[in-house]
């Protein structure tokens, strides 16, 4: 990849001048997480009444976006997200945010293969180094591809971003048209709640399955991070990291000395990720730390690459599973709550890896408006999106046990899933499964 395309010198302009480059009908790209712009965002919001039909692609917003707060009816700005964070979900609920269904690791290819338009790309980065490169911090994802494809590239400088190593984790000044200086906001942090008793019970079951030299992918959420905390007291050693998201749980494992990457077949001795989100301690740990490598999302997520490591262990959440093993991890009926992310790709990669294991975990129940319900159900909630199909599911874990669905018949799947449902719902689930023919009448 050529990231030295020209000797042009980018022009330093104010955020207001940068916002004036936007025209009605333009497609903008705000990037993801820590590199989403702030000064530009506020300046563009100030132009609201002058603009129509501005479409912005984004991912996991970690701060309120000024353009959306200024346009609560969505008359001027249209917000499209590759994956929802809490703020994006709230804007979707307000009917001014929209989801783009994707496997996260395929996004760079969408831009290249289908020529998705980008009129203006605006990304945060660190100040230029001696070689004229602006480091992207701990959020690379598809940002290199956005820079390659955009008609206008604007970089908003923030020297509070961690400097993270990675062969492609920078933008060369020859690729940049304009620079906005002066953003000194600290990095947004993701609160890391202590694991619940259920999280710990699930984490304990998964941690017992992790061997020395395993290569971990840890998804977002309490249960995957509970696995990390329980591994701190295990005998597991020489763990590797090849993950989409770098979490505080992984940092804790690294600081304990259990993460060395010594047995990885690719990127030996390196912890590889495509974006980080967590505490100030996380950002300080990865800053100029050669043990960490921030790579493009097509490198971290595509199964044919991940599977090159042995003993890949993928640990991800779901919110509902039916008795055939379909995992609905991203919606609550027609209400979208997160995204496919890398779940399906890592499930497939872990299974394809030599001695790999893919875990989908969930609490057996949830409570809504004072009513408790089972997360293991006969049929998914109408409108729920299947994130991982039944044919891909390997291990399923609740606080009541762990099962393996690979190679199992529908009847065997139903019986196994009922065995790890909450005891209060097992009789009803079995009765429904037999009534609807999932379990034959004579099957014991």
Please characterize this protein's 3D structure:
- This protein has 15 helices and 27 strands.
- The longest helix has 13 residues, at 423-435.
- The relative contact order is 0.11.
- The strands form seven sheets. An eight-stranded parallel sheet has the order 1-10-8-6-2-3-4-5.
- It has 444 residues and is α/β, with parallel strands linked by helices.
- It has two domains: 11-180, Glutaconate Coenzyme A-transferase (3-Layer(aba) Sandwich), CATH 3.40.1080; 197-435, 3-Layer(aba) Sandwich (Glutaconate Coenzyme A-transferase), CATH 3.40.1080.20.
The fraction of residues assigned to DSSP E strands is: 15-25%
Distance between the termini: 59 Å
**Major sheet: order of its strands?**
1-10-8-6-2-3-4-5
**Average pLDDT taken over every residue:** 95
Number of domains: 2
Uncertain segments of ≥5 residues (pLDDT<50)?
none
Helix-and-strand structural type: alpha/beta
CATH architecture descriptor of the largest domain: 3-Layer(aba) Sandwich
């Amino acid at each position: 990849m050529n990231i030295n395309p020209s000797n042009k010198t980018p022009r330093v302009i104010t955020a207001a001048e940068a916002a004036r480059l936007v025209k009605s009908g333009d497609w903008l790209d705000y990037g993801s997480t820590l590199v989403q712009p702030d000064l530009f965002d506020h300046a563009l919001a100030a132009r609201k009444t002058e603009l129509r039909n501005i479409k912005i692609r984004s991912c996991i917003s970690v701060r309120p976006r000024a353009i959306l707060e200024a346009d609560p009816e969505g008359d001027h700005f249209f917000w499209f997200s590759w994956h929802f964070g809490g703020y994006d979900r709230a804007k979707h609920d307000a009917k001014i945010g929209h989801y783009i269904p994707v496997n996260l690791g395929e996004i760079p290819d969408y831009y290249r293969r289908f020529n998705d338009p980008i009129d203006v790309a605006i990304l945060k980065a660190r100040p230029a180094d001696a070689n004229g490169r602006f480091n992207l911090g701990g959020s690379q994802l598809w940002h290199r591809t956005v820079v390659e494809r955009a008609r206008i590239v604007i970089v908003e400088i923030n020297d509070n971003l961690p400097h993270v190593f990675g062969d492609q984790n920078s933008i060369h000044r020859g690729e940049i048209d304009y620079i906005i200086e002066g953003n000194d906001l600290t990095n947004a942090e993701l609160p890391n709640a202590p694991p619940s008793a259920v999280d710990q019970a699930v984490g304990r079951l998964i941690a017992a399955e992790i061997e020395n030299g395993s290569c971990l992918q840890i998804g977002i959420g309490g249960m995957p991070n509970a696995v990390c905390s329980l591994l701190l007291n295990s005998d597991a050693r020489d763990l590797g990291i090849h993950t989409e998201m770098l979490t505080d749980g992984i940092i804790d494992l690294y600081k304990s000395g259990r993460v060395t990457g010594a047995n990885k077949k690719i990127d030996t001795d390196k912890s590889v990720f495509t974006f980080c989100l967590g505490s100030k301690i996380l950002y300080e740990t990865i800053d100029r730390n050669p043990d960490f490598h921030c790579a493009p999302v097509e490198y971290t997520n595509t199964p044919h690459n991940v599977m090159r490591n042995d003993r890949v262990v993928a640990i991800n959440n779901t919110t509902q599973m039916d008795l055939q093993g379909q995992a609905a991890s991203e919606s609550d009926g027609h209400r979208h709550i997160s995204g496919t992310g890398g779940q399906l790709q890592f499930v497939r990669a872990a299974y394809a890896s030599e001695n790999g294991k893919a875990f989908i975990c969930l609490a057996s129940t949830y409570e809504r408006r004072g009513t408790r319900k089972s997360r293991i159900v006969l049929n998914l909630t109408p409108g729920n999106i299947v994130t991982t199909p039944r044919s891909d599911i390997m291990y399923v874990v609740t606080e009541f046990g762990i099962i393996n669905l690979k190679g199992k018949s529908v009847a065997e799947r139903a019986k196994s899933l009922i065995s790890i449902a909450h005891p209060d719902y097992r009789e009803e689930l079995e009765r429904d499964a037999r009534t609807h023919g999932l379990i034959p009448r004579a099957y014991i």
